[in-house]
């Protein structure tokens, strides 16, 4: 065992540090985040410029093949860059889904000509991608989706509705999972397309989320035409293509999404405690910090083990599912405790008064969504139980029945 | 043994639920949520006054109905359930109860009838910054006749007519006193602040030589506030069980109607156990709240311990119910349109107003020690 960077990794880390110092601002509890200081438009411009700089300096598509414009490096380098980038308030958010999930799917299934057209602009931040899987009645059970595509000559015609599509309102392209054959069993009648989000018949409506903002959308499809050539992985193979996307999702999510043990412990030194000193000196609070540390570190170290497996050429197993269960619930717990430690003052969200600019209150809202986005706690635990531990699956009533004959509720 | 509310009290509860489901519908709550300029629903406030609820536990001699604290508990549960956007808790649980236990005859004469008819809105101005407000650190001062300093946050501070202010009392060596200030008078400016729960308004209030008079004994402010909080904690715990119950019903209902994998999601044990956990926490909270209600209504020596238990259990049950209600609703639960977040917000507010749970846990254990020593 050896946690030190190899000389090659150390050199890469140095390069990454130099790049980030030149192109982003260090994170700071004292300062409002870039996203809050800028208007949506300004933020998007900043994000695109940042992504372009990453591409120009060899930090975009770190693990992607060189012939696609990537760096062709081992996954460890992507992790190293992520570790360094995490120290900065870098405007990388708008690209997470596209570069983390959608474009890798395109790389895996599209033709060379299609890859030549799409991968470069995505890498350089010129085009943004979104993922159109979930529907009102198909979230956890995404294979239960109803959006229909019907063949018409060289095109398919799509009708239906997607929901929760993060970033659809600023995306140029999307990958969309649709039902091409309702007479087959649910997993067998699906196909995947990539689609121009500016196509006639696509309407994007923002969803007002409980935290106040609107990061995701409903997307309506009315007679939207998409060329047959844009089908990924072949007709009826949509589910296996989607699994590739979702596998990448498990890798993409799970970083530290907000204040963690370190942030709350630093902050606690400035807060009055119950025993006359600072909050950081209260015995009960210290016990909690220890628990948070153990979980955060344990998860970080588990990722190192995954990385080791990766660098030996093994694919990461479903154990990467534990990541979001830990991070989302820890975020909810830490922010809950921070608010309670402030006593009545913790209810204030006004950035002018709220300690740490209200980051704990905001993250407390966001944490509730994080426990749902990209696979709920419950679904992730099912995956652990069934795919890691080998426990028998739930009794399935929906496996071998034609999709159109399945019961559905609201 | 008869550890339950009477038939009359249950009838009052039924009436309250019916009334609030009409007068304080979610549409009414959302009007306040969505409008930063509105502190509360004035129409609902008047309607509640007309029902006599504001004076339910105020003696008839002061314009109230002269019912007891048990009736107030019953109403509190329904107010909590309906998320009623009115300064009810501040006025009734804190301000009026404080006057009842510590007010002079003149103070009661002057203020309680106004509480009962809705013209007096009360609030508590104790906090000045993060953490529990402590006498040693108070910067708001009282010189024997007027108050100067800033209080933040003050629940309902932007619509209240009167405040109970925790001050450093210079007439008694800097010990804390509670004083009453007429917020419509000179030397008071209130500014709204944004909070986690926009359905209840909060303000920052600055006093500049605002005329004030002491409630109870000068220098006894901390102990008196603690007694007021004990009483309020019981009433708030009823709001918390009302809110928790609403979350549990919402989640149960959704779990029956929502399908995934062609099954009702309520048929998955992950969801069943989640709802069962909510139920268990709620029943623990409800039982502690009932005991608190008994102690409150009989002025029993058990009140301090019972109040702490009711508060802690209420905070825990409501937080759990509100966050797992969101989780049960999946993506829908994270939207603005679905009501889940209103409870998530209110659960936090109720857990922070009147002292956060960590303080109450310490209080509870200290009180337990006292009881054991006796
Ligand atoms: C912030 C956010 C961003 C998102 N971004 C995107 C996006 O960009 N693209 C996209 O396609 N989707 C996106 N989603 C959608 C997300 O993937 C779904 O919301 C999620 O998968 C849950 O599906 P659902 O909302 O339909 O809930 P449901 O599936 O209806 O779940 C309701 C409840 O039932 C439980 N449940 C369901 N099945 C089981 C089971 N078998 N066993 C036990 N419990 C079960 C769930 O855990 C949940 O508690 C996003 C969601 C959020 C909140």
Automatic annotation (TrEMBL), chain A:
All copies of domain Acyl-CoA dehydrogenase/oxidase N-terminal, residue ranges: 6-126
Cofactor: FAD
GO molecular function, one term: oxidoreductase activity, acting on the CH-CH group of donors
Domain Acyl-CoA dehydrogenase/oxidase C-terminal positions: 236-389
Cellular component annotations (GO), alphabetically ordered: plasma membrane
InterPro entries, per database record: Acyl-CoA_Oxase/DH_mid-dom (IPR006091), Acyl-CoA_Oxase/DH_mid-dom_sf (IPR046373), AcylCo_DH-like_C (IPR036250), AcylCo_DH/oxidase_C (IPR009075), AcylCoA_DH/ox_N (IPR013786), AcylCoA_DH/ox_N_sf (IPR037069), AcylCoA_DH/oxidase_NM_dom_sf (IPR009100), Mycobact_Acyl-CoA_DH (IPR052161)
PANTHER family: ACYL-COA DEHYDROGENASE (PTHR43292), ACYL-COA DEHYDROGENASE FADE34 (PTHR43292:SF4)
Matching SUPFAM superfamilies: Acyl-CoA dehydrogenase C-terminal domain-like (SSF47203), Acyl-CoA dehydrogenase NM domain-like (SSF56645)
Protein name per its UniProtKB record: Putative acyl-CoA dehydrogenase FadE17
The species this protein was found in: Candidatus Phycosocius bacilliformis
Pfam families to which the protein is assigned, alphabetical: Acyl-CoA_dh_1 (PF00441), Acyl-CoA_dh_M (PF02770), Acyl-CoA_dh_N (PF02771)
Keywords: FAD, Flavoprotein, Oxidoreductase
UniProtKB/TrEMBL annotation, chain B:
The keyword S-adenosyl-L-methionine belongs to this UniProt entry's keyword annotation: no
Family matches, as InterPro entries: AcylCo_DH-like_C (IPR036250), AcylCo_DH/oxidase_C (IPR009075), AcylCoA_DH/ox_N (IPR013786), AcylCoA_DH/ox_N_sf (IPR037069), AcylCoA_DH/oxidase_NM_dom_sf (IPR009100)
Cofactor list: FAD
Lineage: superkingdom: Bacteria
Residues of the Acyl-CoA dehydrogenase/oxidase C-terminal domain: 231-365
PANTHER family xrefs: ACYL-COA DEHYDROGENASE, ACYL-COA DEHYDROGENASE FADE28
Protein name: Acyl-CoA dehydrogenase
């Amino acid at each position: 065992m050896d946690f030190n960077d190899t000389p090659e990794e150390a050199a890469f880390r140095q390069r990454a540090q130099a790049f980030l110092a030149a192109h982003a601002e260090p994170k700071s509890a004292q300062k409002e985040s870039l996203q809050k200081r800028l208007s949506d438009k300004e933020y998007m411009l900043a994000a695109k410029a940042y992504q372009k700089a990453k591409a120009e300096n060899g930090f975009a598509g770190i693990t992607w093949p060189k012939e696609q414009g990537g760096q062709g490096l081992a996954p460890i380098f992507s992790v190293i860059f992520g570790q360094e980038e995490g120290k900065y308030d870098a405007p990388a958010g708008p690209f997470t889904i596209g570069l983390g999930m959608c474009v890798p799917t395109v790389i895996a299934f599209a033709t060379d000509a299609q890859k030549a057209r799409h991968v470069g602009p995505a890498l350089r931040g010129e085009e943004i991608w979104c993922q159109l899987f979930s529907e009102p009645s198909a979230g956890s059970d995404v294979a239960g989706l109803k959006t229909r595509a019907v063949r018409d000559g060289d095109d398919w015609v799509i009708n239906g509705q997607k929901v929760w599509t993060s970033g659809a309102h600023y995306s140029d392209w999307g990958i969309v999972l649709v039902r091409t054959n309702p007479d087959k069993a649910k997993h067998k009648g699906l196909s995947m397309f990539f689609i121009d989000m500016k196509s006639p018949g696509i309407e994007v409506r923002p969803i007002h989320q409980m935290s106040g903002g609107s990061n995701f959308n409903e997307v309506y499809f009315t007679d939207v035409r998409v060329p047959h050539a844009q089908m990924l992985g072949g007709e009826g193979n949509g589910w296996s293509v989607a699994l590739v996307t979702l596998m990448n999702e498990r890798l993409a999510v799970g970083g530290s999404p907000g204040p963690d043990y370190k942030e709350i412990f630093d902050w606690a030194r400035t807060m009055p405690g119950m025993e006359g000193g600072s909050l950081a000196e209260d015995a009960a609070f210290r016990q909690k910090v220890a628990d948070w540390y153990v979980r955060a570190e344990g998860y970080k170290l588990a990722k190192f083990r995954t990385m080791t497996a990766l660098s030996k050429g093994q694919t990461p197993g479903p154990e990467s599912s534990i990541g979001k269960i830990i991070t989302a619930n820890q975020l909810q717990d830490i922010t809950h405790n921070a608010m309670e430690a402030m006593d009545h003052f913790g209810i204030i969200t006004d950035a002018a008064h709220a300690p740490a600019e209200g980051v704990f209150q905001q993250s407390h809202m966001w944490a509730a969504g994080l426990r749902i986005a990209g696979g709920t706690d419950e679904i992730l635990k099912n995956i652990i139980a069934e795919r890691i531990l080998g426990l028998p699956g739930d009794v399935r009533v929906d496996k071998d029945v034609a999709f159109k004959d399945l019961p559905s509720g609201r | 043994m008869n550890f339950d509310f009477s038939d009359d009290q249950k009838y009052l509860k039924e009436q309250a639920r019916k009334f609030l489901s009409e007068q304080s519908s979610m549409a009414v709550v959302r009007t306040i949520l969505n409008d930063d300029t509105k502190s509360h629903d004035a129409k609902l406030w008047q309607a509640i006054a007309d029902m006599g609820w504001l004076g339910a536990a105020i003696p008839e001699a002061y314009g109230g109905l002269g019912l007891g604290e048990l009736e107030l508990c019953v109403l509190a549960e329904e107010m909590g359930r309906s998320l009623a956007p009115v300064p009810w808790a501040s006025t009734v649980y804190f301000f009026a109860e404080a006057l009842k236990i510590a007010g002079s005859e003149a103070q009661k004469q002057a203020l309680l009838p106004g509480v009962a008819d809705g013209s007096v809105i009360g609030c508590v101005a104790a906090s000045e910054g993060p953490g529990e407000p402590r006498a040693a650190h108070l910067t708001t001062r009282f010189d024997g006749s007027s108050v100067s300093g800033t209080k933040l946050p003050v629940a309902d501070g932007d619509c209240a007519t009167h405040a109970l202010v925790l001050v450093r009392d210079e007439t008694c060596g800097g010990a804390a006193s509670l004083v009453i200030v007429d917020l419509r008078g000179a030397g008071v400016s209130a500014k709204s602040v944004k909070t986690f729960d926009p359905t209840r308004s909060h303000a920052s209030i600055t006093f500049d030589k605002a005329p004030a008079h002491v409630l109870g004994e000068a220098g006894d402010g901390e102990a008196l506030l603690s007694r007021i909080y004990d009483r309020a904690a019981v009433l708030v715990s009823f709001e918390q069980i009302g809110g928790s119950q609403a979350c549990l019903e919402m989640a149960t209902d959704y779990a029956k109607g929502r399908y995934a994998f062609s099954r009702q999601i309520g048929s998955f044990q992950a969801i069943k156990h989640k709802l069962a956990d909510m139920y268990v926490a709620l029943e623990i909270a409800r039982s502690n709240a009932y005991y608190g209600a008994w102690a409150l209504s009989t002025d029993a020596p058990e009140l301090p311990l019972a109040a702490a238990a009711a508060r802690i259990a209420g905070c825990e049950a409501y937080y759990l119910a509100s966050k797992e209600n969101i989780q049960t609703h999946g993506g829908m639960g994270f939207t603005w349109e679905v009501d889940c977040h209103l409870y998530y917000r209110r659960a936090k507010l109720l857990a922070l107003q009147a002292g956060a749970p960590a303080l109450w846990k310490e209080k509870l254990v200290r009180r337990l020690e006292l009881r054991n020593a006796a």
